[in-house]
What does this fold into?
Amino acid sequence: MRIALTGARGQLGRSLQQILRHEKVTPLSLPEGDVTDPAICDRLADLKPEVVLHAAAMTNVDGCELNPEAAYRVNALGTRNVALGARKAGADLLYVSTDYVFDGQTDTPYWEFDVPRPLSVYGKSKLAGEDFVRHLMDRYYIVRTAWVYGPGGKNFVEKVLSLASERPSLSMVATEFGSPTYTVHLAEALARLIRTRLYGTYHLTNTGLCSRYAFAQAILRLSGQPEYPLQASTSYPRPAPVPARAELRNFCAAEIGITLPPWEEGLEAYFQTREG
Ligand SMILES: NC(=O)c1ccc[n+]([C@@H]2O[C@H](COP(=O)([O-])OP(=O)(O)OC[C@H]3O[C@@H](n4cnc5c(N)ncnc54)[C@H](OP(=O)(O)O)[C@@H]3O)[C@@H](O)[C@H]2O)c1
It folds into this structure.
């Protein structure tokens, strides 16, 4: 399968390259693979991929809040450019979206048929990207995921470990819940999904839900620091409003036999391969 991959140097991009190593993958990265440059459209068309995997995004949630123009330029208009390129190439498009398209104000999991209501600029700009995909493409997968971490990334796991090495104690919010998702498990699921041709919107996360505090506890335990002084807090002041509880029910993928393991297994697998 000929595949073009945006955001190839990102966390998910790296895992996708690894999982799809037997396919003909063309990795696109900054600066030549800048999705904000409309030239990406012809670049994609020239590659004649069968599938475009669009994993490039501005993922710094607080950075998006502070610089909305940049967020919409990359996440919304950049996705438009990629969709136009995929359309010109006659390719399927897979766009990776986020749990932050929901407000997280309910105690029940969100499934694919719930109406989004993003709180943050990041969530709004990713939803605008979804809208471009739906309007411009006939054959697309929109895959919402959450709390992504993987090899080579600047992610929550590495942030907790780095802070714990610098500070005598840490506090983490116990009031924000999500499903930590390991890029290798997600990439395996995406590799299966693009072969189904069952287009539409999917939720794909590792299963289960935890607070940031519980996630940090598990990270410290697996790194051999179970006694590290970690306190639970009720708030974490930051520029971007984030959903308090955005559990994504993976309904549509489960219907076609695509499921991910529990988040704890993802974290263990990450630690088994982690360097340093
Ligand atoms: N991280 C999460 O917790 C999370 C949660 C839910 C959904 N997602 C979604 O999952 C996807 C993959 O996320 P990730 O965690 O792998 O993110 P990541 O590690 O930040 O990777 C994103 C990649 O996009 C690249 N990029 C940024 N602006 C670009 C532009 N204008 N043109 C081309 N490439 C550009 C970045 O390049 P540089 O590294 O050079 O900046 C980076 O390599 C994204 O669509 C994200 O919105 C992520």
